[in-house]
Amino acid sequence: MLFSSKSYDMVTPSEALPGRSQPIPTADTHFLSARPLTAPVPEGMEVAIFGMGCFWGVERLFWNTPGVWVTMVGYGAGYTPNPTYQEVCTGRTGHNELVRVVYDPTKVSYDDLLKIFWEGHDPTQGMRQGGDRGTQYRSGIYPTTAAQREAAEASRTLYQERLRDARLGTITTEIRDAEHFYMAEDYHQQYLAKNPNGYCGIGGTGVTCPVGLAV
Questions:
Q1: Residue segments in the chain with a per-residue pLDDT below the cut of 50
Q2: Which of 54, 89, 200, 209 is catalytic?
Q3: What is the 3-state secondary structure (H, E, C) of the chain?
Q4: What pLDDT is stored for residue 215 in this prediction?
Q5: Model pTM?
Q6: Catalytic site residue 200?
């Protein structure tokens, strides 16, 4: 992606950029569905948040999933309030590039989303994903409920066993409770729908995740 950071070291809170008190401008509605991006979560829906590399390609994985109501990209798991993309890419905000997924749990389960997460990228690469290098490309799951956290941690254990069997690396995915999610700029929202031939830097290991399967 543009302005890709080469830093592999997390910034400390005292070193982080100051940011701003007000949200940065973004899109009002989803480019594909026209559903509102900043409205309250509809009754009965749940929220999942993932980081797995460049958020352009990650968002497409989830908006194509049946049962997903709406998706959006943004920044989180860092320190700087209301950061811009350029600030995140300096490595001095501590943020990760994230996708926020609002979904109907009667149509798609959190385990289903975890399976997409694990199989959609390489969670062993530390502060990078493929050629995208920097702390904003780290693998992360950011649960919004205690049940999600339990499921995320269990899935990490299961997938690590599969990766070990395949003689691949150790998972570096962070799992931490979701805090602030800052919406990214308008042009990042549903980027690959607006630019079908645009850059997508994610790719999996080829190892099937056993979440939701008989093991």
A1: 1-6, 214-215
A2: 54
A3: CCCCCCCCCCCCHHHCCCCCCCCCCCCCECCCCCCECCCCCCCCCEEEEEEECCHHHHHHHHHCCCCEEEEEEEEECCCCCCCCHHHHCCCCCCCEEEEEEEECCCCCCHHHHHHHHHHCCCCCCCCEECCEECHHHCEEECCCCHHHHHHHHHHHHHHHHHHHHCCCCCCCCEECCCCCEEECCHHHCCHHHHCCCCCCCCCCCCCCCCCCCCC
A4: 42
A5: 0.94
A6: no
